[in-house]
Amino acid sequence: MQRIVKDHKDHERGAAGVMVAVMMIVLIGAGALAVDTGQIYAERAQLQNAADAGALAGVDICSEAGGCTQADANAVAEALADSNSNDNKSTVQSVDLSVPGEVTVTTSTKDGTTNAGFLTKMFASALNAPAATVGATATAKWLYPTKGITVLPLTFAPCEFKDDGLPHKILIQGGAQDCNGLNPSNQIIPGGFAWLNPDGSTGCNVTAEIGQWSKTSAGAAVPNGCIDLFNPSLNPSLAGSTVALPVYKYTCDGMPAAQFGTCNGSSVQYFIEKWAGFKIQAWNLSGQAKYDPTPVFSGSEKGLYGTFVGYSADPNLFTGGTTTPTGNVVVLGLIK
Length: 336
Description:
Strand content: 25-35%
Number of domains: 2
Shape: elongated
Structural class: alpha+beta
Order of helices and strands: HHEEEEEEEEEEEEEE
């Protein structure tokens, strides 16, 4: 009688198919992780750009003297949000104007082809994963600054700033001046610049307030306590930074009745009108207060060298302000 002998290898039959099926799941999962997650992150980045642009556009129109309506803010946020998406489509879920001086825009996914409000996953759909909806939020604010802690304790006449996008010297001593120190009424102002008096007896904290008179330090020398601010060894971050320079409108002894007159002596005060953004690249003041690697200053020239970037500045440079139009510079920026 023939004995039936069981083949001990039979139990391995079909194992390859199981392994292929398992590996397919792993590969699909890896694809979902790499491709679909990458797609989600890319969409998220576009939506953040869209929200940022929409919020900044919103504060740009809402900060105008006449303000804005909800419809105005919605329209400009939608337009900017779409143009900052790769497929020119994004959903603006909301434009929040409830906080004075702020515009918050929330965006979410919109398919550029189907207008669906979700992302269709390429690999994860094989694993029966749901479609993804991605969103982003940005808040921008505006401020009409009233008080500023100036990075540089200098104030200049508006005629010193050339709006041509090129670097220029603003001289406080020596050489040909950029202007003759004329105020808006074409009356000569002594010097065309002033060092502002530090707030205390030590250090170089200087507070300038729009619409107010600021006390100045007599002469062209750097005030006591401020020399370290301009020492490149002690303050290397100053070169190449954009600072806020207070711009004055009038100078006199501080009496409003004499605001169009000239005055001399150590008690001169300057009426601050606005701030100028200035990207500082070099300076030559006195002693250790010098950074002029090129150099750009010659002979007896002393002053600043850099580029005027408009009458605006970083909101962080200001300690006070209002959302009510004052006729002065408006500061815009993203806060989150």
